[in-house]
Amino acid sequence: NLNRAAPEVLAAMVDGLSLEAARAILSRGPFVELEQALDQPEFVLLDGAELPLRLSVDSDWFLAQARVQLDGTTRDYFRLINASGGGPDFRYVSQGIP
What we know:
A 3-stranded antiparallel sheet has the order 1-2-3, with no helix packed on it. The chain is an alpha+beta fold. It starts with 6 loop residues before the first helix and ends with a strand. The chain contains 5 helices and 3 strands, in the order H-H-H-H-H-E-E-E.
């Protein structure tokens, strides 16, 4: 959710988007429609075919991913988080495939 994301999170999520560009985009929000956000010049410069699939402006659900490498073995961990209401609600935890 672009309207809730920190600039560091947005920059990490979008390949080729710098922290400065993420800050600039978020400074123009909040966004009512996703198309309004995707029309921002910093996004237009990117090959953003996957952006509409990965970003939103109204969701309270977030998929967090951590990639951990230990002793040459890489593992991906996923957690589905609901940020509405009285605090984070962790519904789903997975190791491997989301």
